[in-house]
User: Which sequence fits this backbone?
């Protein structure tokens, strides 16, 4: 019953739009529902990245830990966002920390398991890689625009 | 036994006069200093002195000159003491205690490639190491300097970097976070220069210095390229007051950064950095 | 300071009046005599003149966050454990000036004048075995490396120790676990065991050093009999069997190193007030500020040393913020340093089992209990279990 409900979630999620029913079932088989309390760390810099998360409801911060500034939030993700792409790229290790800012419910997908399945079925691998590349592209473009510091002195661009 | 006799060496400041002052960037100044009385003991690259501005306070500052040359301290103005030191002019007398701490280990780098990764003011404690390496250049393999600054105006020791880059036996790459209209070189984080830098990861020694986050990322990039944890040295920083391992403030796990550091093998430091708020 | 091991054959017995002779002899040799005395409802260490300044007939009752003096039913002079102060306040004073500096002309800049030693020589009376160990630990901190501390060295060099073997351990004592007592075995000039039965009040005296032997000569004594020695040993055997607390020290360094994220740290952090009482009371804590002060004219500066505590937020301040902003991280730093990393730094545990941190904690945090709970769940992590739940 849980697997079917995860499958339904994935099938209706925009990130997975167009994925075939078999592929959805396979992904759902690698998934489980999880929840995080407000303030709880989801993953930490340097740890093995073997999962990714589809945020169903809540607010997550991608952050970096500085010895004197503490947690510096780089970006926030919320309902519908996908968290974590390091599972796809060697050395499969988290580059930043992620923390739930509010009580958050997500679907956790087993990236290690999926990597194996993608090796076996490159067609699925290409499909997932394309979807994740799209996220990385969006976030990189946004990060570059943020570098312009448009609301500050605009570094000559504002 | 008078307290002074024992205190004389580590806790009494020696008088040093400012003989020259150079504005390096908008907020950084290099002071050249000569002793008024007896000089401090000879130092090794990577060590620091406690620098005292009369009536203001005392801070740890790395030595940025090569051993055997006039003493330099490159200071970034971030608080009341460093501001006072940056305002010091020729003829002013400051107090120095030192040298303290561990030094960059160049012995274990003999016959190896050397990759130096510096971020911001982190280039200052590396400068004496670079000068030492260049003095005995034949002892080492490829030498690569990668340095990152916030913007072109904030590149430390820019004329010297250009001089080093002009040599045929050393690679120098500079990158900035924010470019100016006339900047034609790299823009991006300094760690991005590591994957393609010309050194053999299996036969190299890495010296890394800069903000702690930058050192973590640089070490990770070096390790990803195949450099062993034990081949990487970092320069750590903590609240230092006595500088002789007695006051307790600089403790990091089982070490006193003033005495067992600031230069550490990354192999030793990495587990400490994994425990947050350690 | 070289200390000859106690000569176990040389034992003497004296009555309580001999203590006054001892104090007088110490004073005539230029010592400032410090010993236990009752003040403000506690036994503290301060200047004493005669045995009448000692806490005659007083015992103590100690537990987590609890200290009370209680009347004994005898006239014992040393019938209590340890109070809030330790000998550290004399060897490593809470505030010390290191030097003064005065502005001079442009050529000179300034002139620095080191603070002279005032030449005080201390005689400490009533030192417990755990306290002798604490002093030996601070010897390693302040004298054991390339930069011996001049203030500590001056006060320590000639200090005279009159130890007292414990007969009344308190509810927070655990010297047996830490192998630091209750019987003093080294580091003293003289060691006393107090024997009070009925009206008969005597002291069995061991001589630890040659100069200790010289002081005994100034007291009215007789040689101890085998029975006296047996009685004295029975006192500490009894004390050893009545410890208030215990702590498992087997493998403690690696245990602590692998439990830095144990959930118990969150629990203790919710109780800890970060008040620093434990570090102030602890006889081995050595952290101190090195600070500069100037006068209004700005022409006169002084460098002072002042006790500090790792529990203060500013302790780990580093351009812009503190490395340990949370109480959790600061409590963890204190405990993991005291028991886990201290051995790596100085070769012994930092804890002597005196129990002061337990007694003087306003909320009664007990480090033996904290360790016990962690040991019972070795390896537990703050990572919550990711719960499966229906969508």
Assistant:
């Amino acid at each position: 019953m849980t697997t079917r409900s995860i499958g339904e979630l994935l099938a209706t999620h925009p990130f997975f739009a167009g994925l075939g029913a078999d592929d959805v079932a396979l992904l759902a088989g690698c998934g489980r529902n999880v929840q995080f309390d407000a303030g709880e760390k989801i993953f930490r810099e340097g740890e093995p990245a073997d999962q990714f998360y589809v945020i169903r409801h809540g607010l997550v911060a991608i952050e970096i830990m500085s010895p004197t500034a503490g947690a510096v939030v780089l970006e926030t993700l919320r309902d519908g966002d996908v968290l974590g792409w390091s599972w796809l790229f060697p050395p499969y290790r988290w580059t930043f920390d992620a923390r739930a800012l509010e009580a958050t419910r997500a679907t956790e997908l087993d990236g290690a398991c999926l990597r194996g399945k993608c090796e076996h079925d490159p067609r699925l691998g290409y499909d997932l890689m394309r979807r994740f590349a799209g996220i990385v592209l969006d976030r990189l473009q946004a990060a570059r625009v943020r570098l312009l510091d448009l609301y500050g002195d605009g570094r000559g661009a504002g | 036994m008078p307290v002074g006799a024992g205190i004389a060496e580590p806790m009494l400041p020696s008088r040093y006069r400012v003989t020259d002052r150079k504005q390096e960037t908008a907020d950084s100044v290099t002071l050249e200093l000569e002793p008024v009385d007896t000089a401090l003991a000879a130092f090794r690259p990577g060590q620091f002195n406690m620098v005292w501005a009369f009536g203001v306070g005392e801070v740890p500052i790395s030595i940025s000159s090569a051993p055997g040359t006039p003493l330099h301290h490159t200071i970034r103005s971030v608080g009341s003491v460093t501001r006072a030191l940056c305002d010091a002019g020729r003829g002013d007398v400051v107090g120095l205690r030192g040298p303290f701490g561990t030094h960059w280990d160049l012995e274990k780098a003999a016959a190896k490639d050397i990759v130096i990764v510096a971020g911001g003011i982190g280039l200052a404690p590396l400068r004496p190491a670079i000068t030492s390496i260049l003095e005995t250049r034949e002892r080492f393999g490829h030498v690569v300097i990668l340095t990152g600054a916030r913007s072109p105006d904030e590149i430390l020791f820019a004329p010297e970097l250009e001089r080093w880059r002009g040599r045929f036996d050393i690679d120098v790459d500079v990158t900035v976070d924010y470019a100016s209209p006339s900047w034609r070189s790299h823009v991006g984080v300094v760690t991005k220069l590591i994957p393609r830098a010309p050194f053999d990861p299996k036969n190299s020694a890495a010296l890394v210095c800069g903000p702690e986050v930058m050192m973590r990322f640089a070490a990770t990039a070096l390790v990803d390229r195949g450099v062993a944890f034990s081949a990487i040295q970092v320069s750590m920083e903590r609240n230092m007051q006595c500088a002789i391992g007695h006051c307790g403030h600089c403790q990091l796990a089982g070490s006193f950064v003033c005495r067992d550091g600031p230069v550490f093998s990354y192999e030793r430091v990495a587990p400490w950095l994994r425990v947050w708020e350690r | 300071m070289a200390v000859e091991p106690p000569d176990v054959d040389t034992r003497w017995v004296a009555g309580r009046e001999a203590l006054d002779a001892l104090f007088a002899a110490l004073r005539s040799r230029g010592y400032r005599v410090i010993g236990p005395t009752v003040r403000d409802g506690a036994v503290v260490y301060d200047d004493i003149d005669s045995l009448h300044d000692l806490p005659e007939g007083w015992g103590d009752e100690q537990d987590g966050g609890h200290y009370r003096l209680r009347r004994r039913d005898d006239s014992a002079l040393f019938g209590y454990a340890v109070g809030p102060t330790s000998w550290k306040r004399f060897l490593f004073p809470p505030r010390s000036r290191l030097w003064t500096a005065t502005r001079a002309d442009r050529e000179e800049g300034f002139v620095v004048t080191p603070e002279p030693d005032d030449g005080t020589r201390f005689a400490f009376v009533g030192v417990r075995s755990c306290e002798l160990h604490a002093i030996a630990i601070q010897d390693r901190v302040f004298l054991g490396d390339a930069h011996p501390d001049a203030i500590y060295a001056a006060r320590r060099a000639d200090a005279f120790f009159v130890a007292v073997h414990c007969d009344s351990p308190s509810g927070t004592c655990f010297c047996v676990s830490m192998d630091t007592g209750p019987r003093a075995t080294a580091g003293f000039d003289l060691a006393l065991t107090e024997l009070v039965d009925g009206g008969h009040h005597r002291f069995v005296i061991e001589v630890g050093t040659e100069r200790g032997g010289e002081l005994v000569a100034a007291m009215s004594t007789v040689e101890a009999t085998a029975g006296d020695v047996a009685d004295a040993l029975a006192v500490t055997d009894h004390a050893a069997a009545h410890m208030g607390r215990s702590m498992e020290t087997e493998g403690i360094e690696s245990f602590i190193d692998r439990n830095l994220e144990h959930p118990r740290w969150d629990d203790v952090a919710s109780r800890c007030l970060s008040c620093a009482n434990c570090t102030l009371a602890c006889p081995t804590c050595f952290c101190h500020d090195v600070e500069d002060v100037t006068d209004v004219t700005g022409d006169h500066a002084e460098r002072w040393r002042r006790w500090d505590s790792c529990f203060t937020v500013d302790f780990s301040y580093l351009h812009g913020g503190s490395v340990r902003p949370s109480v959790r991280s600061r409590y963890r730093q204190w405990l993991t340093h005291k028991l886990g990393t201290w051995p790596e730094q100085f070769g012994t545990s930092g804890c002597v089992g005196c129990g002061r941190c337990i007694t003087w904690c306003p909320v009664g945090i007990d480090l033996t209990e904290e360790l016990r709970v962690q040991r019972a769940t070795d390896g537990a992590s703050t990572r919550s279990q990711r719960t499966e739940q229906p969508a």
Summary: The longest strand of chain B covers residues 14-25. Chain B touches chain C through 49 residues (CB under 8 Å). Residues 202 and 227 of chain B are 6 Å apart (CA to CA).
